[in-house]
Fold this sequence. Notes:
With 138 residues, this protein is an alpha+beta fold. It has helices at residues 11-19, 61-67, 114-127, and strands spanning 28-33, 38-43, 53-57, 77-84, 87-96, 99-111. It has a 3-stranded antiparallel β-sheet with strand order 2-1-3, with helices on one face. It has a 3-stranded antiparallel β-sheet with strand order 4-5-6. Helix 1 (11-19) packs parallel to helix 3 (114-127).
Amino acid sequence: MNKLERKVCSVEQAKTLFKLGLCLNSSLYWVHNKYTNDWDLLPLFHHSDDLGIKDIPAYDVAELGMLLPEIFELKPYRCLCFKKDGSWIYTIQNCTENGMEDWEDFITIVENTEAKVKAASLIRMIERRFLTIENLKL
Length: 138
């Protein structure tokens, strides 16, 4: 994985986000060529469908960060993203019965890059209906 690929979601995550209905312009795209069957990461890409090329937005760390909530509108949840022991962790916590000083993990996702953990978290929140495409911070 090259340095640029570490800064964007994986091809699989990009496909899932697209299937879930997220299709925003991105600075980078995963581009599939049906003749070579490879996926390449390229800058903003426009093409003619008759070339046999398909592209999917490859959301980067900043783009994903803008979409993820810092705190849910429906309290008492909060979201944290941090790096620990070489892995990126995104956790959604909920407030315990003891009040806002005591939090417990509700959902925790661990990935090897910040972009992947943010994409995985966004996918999980959409699939579990914590977020909808319509109410994302677009």
